[in-house]
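Notes from the 1:1 (GR / supervisor)

We went over the backlog. Supervisor wanted to see one worked example end to end before approving the batch request, so GR pasted a single chain during the call. The sequence is below; no edits were made to it. Supervisor asked that the structure be written out right there so they could see what the output format looks like.
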Amino acid sequence: MDVVSLVNRCKMAVLGMALLSTLTMPSVVFAEEEADPFDGRLLPIELIMAHRTEIGLTAAQNKRIGELVVGVQQAVAGHQWEMQTAYFELIEVLDETDIDEDRAIALAKKAVDTENEIKLEQMRLLIRLRNLLTPEQVTLLQARRAEQLANLGG
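Structure output shown during the call:
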């Protein structure tokens, strides 16, 4: 396979991943301007770290957050590799003159299932972060998040 074909396949794989990701469940990690289906019950790490001094994040909490993030990054990296492999295999099947429908669907399912595993890892991180915080820290962070969202809307 020449370099141009490989680059085109990579572009198609990325496009396929983007397309399938829009068809699956919404992302667990939200941009500030996107709707939060959990209504602030789960707090993004960026919010926690931006207000770590204000909420009195302890050294132990900070250390545990680092451990959680590293663990999720490792788990997600493995899943991303599996997902990418499934998409590349799917593209090869789709390139055939007669597409093997069962094989194509199986590979698409594998890719989507793996993507959902990534989202579950993200959800697991958000839950563990929330459980790591005190009720007072959670209340303060929820207030800061509400302020940020209000500022974006007005």
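Supervisor's comment: The radius of gyration is 20 Å.
Batch request approved.
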